[in-house]
Amino acid sequence: MAGFVTHLESAIDGTKLAADEVQTLHEGRPLWVRYDLDAIRERVNPETIARRSPTMWRYEELLPCSAAEAVTLGEGMTPLLSATRLGSAIGLNDLWIKDESQLPTGSFKSRGLGMAVSMAARFGLRRLAIPTAGNAGGALAAYGARVGAEVFVFMPEDTPVINQIECHLAGAKTFLVNGLINDCGRIVREGVESAGWFDFSTLKEPYRIEGKKTMGLELAEQFGWELPDAILYPTGGGTGLIGMWKAFAELQELGWLRTKKKPRMFAVQSDGCAPIVRAFENGERFAEVFEGAATCAAGIRVPVAVGDFMILDAVRESGGAAVSVCEDDIMGAVSRAISLEGISVCPEAAACVLAAKKLVVDGRLKADERTVIFNTGAVQKYPECAAVDLPRVDVGTAVDYAALTGIA
Ligand SMILES: *Cc1c(COP(=O)(O)O)cnc(C)c1O
User: Fold this and answer.
1) pTM of the prediction?
2) Which residues have C-beta atoms less than 6 Å from ligand 1?
């Protein structure tokens, strides 16, 4: 089914492009997928959607690909969990975590890549290549395996080992590069002609945004078609933030939202890699490459983003901000958040916890504002950063229970 897509539109200059052909970038910049929202309003409503299966494909009219046509591992409709204990620790009375750690391949990359692979399959693209900070490669490898496509993954050599293994096990041809993700991106781009693959880099094909958009659709549905006051999102390539902002605009135009107000969007980065924050603070629309990028939050170690202006436009339009947090505080925030909530909080989301606290202290986030943090992946994917030296118990000697419990 062709669905309700009318055309693709250049995000930089509004040029319209055909949706029934393979498209990549226009003038080096990403494309929006546009829909006939009037026709969608006639066809479907929130009550119909409420009766469907709990996956992201329940919103199929608002997606480029139908549920029937999808290459799927059951992604979507992740829990929206209240975080009362963490909230009170940082001064927020209405804090929520959208827990994406429970998705296939352990991160929210499964939304974007599930969608992009579904569309690649429709267009008969059989050889796919991706530069990755880790999780995007893992997700592409999994969906590629599911549909029998050939997948090539290029990742920095210090990418978390779990990502290396998951790509390899899913049959992707996986390579370690002694550089950063932008170096991997160049290798993929320059190989398009000779290797004959399709470049699956973030935002270089139009459909990943549509997969990530479902985070915004779910959030609206889970809150009864009302949106929160603030969203904190760990920002690398920015696909999710851009996608959610698009989702809110589409829902508003459909008339499905019960309130007019849209959330303030906060793009969160580590001070070890903060190109978007720097551009935001300098009042720029495009971000310069962040030299020497380094953070344990691998998913946001993205020194340059092709959709930088889309992130910055959304953040500014929403009345939010781009916020950086101290790299050295991130792993402490991981264990603090997990020990308070039991949620598998990844370093990227822990950066958002730190940012929330900073915004509360600054007075930019009020105690009673409904705030959502996106937990974009599972902490189990970061064995290197989370490594711990646990105390030992020796089977050969009497156990000193008073010492090990602290109870005299
Ligand atoms: C990719 C990734 C991010 C950044 O997502 P973008 O939408 O590209 O900004 C954040 N967290 C994790 C765990 C990721 O894998």
Assistant:
1) 0.96
2) 107, 109, 135, 202, 234-240, 299-300, 346, 348, 376-377
